[in-house]
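Q: Given only this backbone (306 positions), what sequence would you predict?
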């Protein structure tokens, strides 16, 4: 069942204003709305998305103007796909796991040990999309522009360092996806679902004992200020989609569609993944400066012969 979405009054005013400008101007200009959940100051917005918007503007000589609406201002994180599919927005970006069960094949990249970087994971995910028709069917209501992954996710805790999987027993851990829920539960932990922007307060107040997330979240959500330990094991990856409304796609000329194809696909997938890798390195450095104790679980247990 589709979830309801809503458009704020400010966004409706933008729509009305855009339509008025398009009909009164002698030059035909198409305005597109790009909806996503990243905060306005997140580099996926300020670097990746804004670079894409500028590339499209330049290559179409200003004929296509894309405006980004960050922070879920047009649609909630778990309704971005439906908002694009129904034409409520022109472009939508979100996380596959926010709608459990909708993308079973794309979500394969959320399993442990699939990749060592966001760049590699993004390349793999886009290649899987291009190669397998069954995976393409998961997007048959929209036009996929790029698919990508974060850098691998690790385990961050407060009050207790996780050195072995047995240490997870009885701990409350914020989990990002059903796949992570499964192995946390199997190891005796209690998975807790919550948006990442609530994790800081939950850790600070002891609502959860730890979180599973990519390195970049420690910096982007200031979590390095409250965590004490990092257990590195490449336990999962977040996967993302950027899709376009079918109607919006069909409203483009053949030449404009070609520009979108040349600008997006693997090119944008890699750019988004590379940005996550850069932020991950910056987050590691910030964590070290904050005296977060880090342990590589996989290397430790390989040396121990486990």
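A: Predicted residues:
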């Amino acid at each position: 069942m589709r979830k309801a979405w809503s458009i704020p009054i400010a966004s409706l005013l933008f729509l009305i204003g855009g339509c008025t400008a398009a009909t009164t101007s002698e030059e035909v200009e198409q305005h597109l709305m790009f909806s996503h959940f990243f905060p306005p100051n997140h580099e996926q917005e300020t670097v990746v998305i804004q670079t894409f918007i500028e590339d499209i503007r330049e290559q179409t000589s200003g004929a296509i103007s894309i405006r980004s609406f960050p922070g879920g201002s047009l649609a909630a994180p778990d309704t971005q796909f439906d908002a694009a599919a129904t034409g409520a927005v022109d472009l939508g970006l979100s996380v596959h796991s926010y709608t459990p069960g909708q993308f079973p094949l794309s979500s394969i990249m959320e399993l442990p040990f699939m990749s060592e970087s966001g760049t590699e994971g993004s390349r793999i995910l886009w290649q899987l999309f291009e190669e397998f028709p069954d995976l393409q069917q998961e997007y048959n209501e929209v036009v996929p522009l790029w698919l990508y992954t974060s850098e691998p996710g690790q385990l961050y805790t407060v009050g207790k360092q996780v050195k072995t999987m047995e240490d997870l027993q009885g701990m409350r851990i914020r989990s990002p996806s059903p796949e992570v829920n499964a192995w946390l539960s199997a190891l005796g932990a209690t998975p807790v679902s919550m948006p990442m922007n609530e994790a800081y307060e939950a850790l600070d107040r002891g609502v959860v004992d730890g979180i599973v997330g990519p390195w970049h979240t420690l910096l982007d959500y200031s979590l390095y200020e409250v965590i004490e330990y990092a257990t590195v094991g490449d336990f999962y990856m977040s996967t993302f989609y950027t899709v376009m409304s079918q109607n919006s796609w069909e409203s483009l000329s053949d030449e404009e569609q070609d520009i979108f194809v040349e600008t997006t696909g693997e090119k944008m997938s890699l750019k988004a993944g590379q940005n996550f890798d850069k932020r991950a390195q910056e987050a590691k450095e910030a964590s070290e400066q904050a005296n977060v104790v880090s342990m590589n679980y996989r290397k430790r247990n390989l040396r121990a012969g486990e």
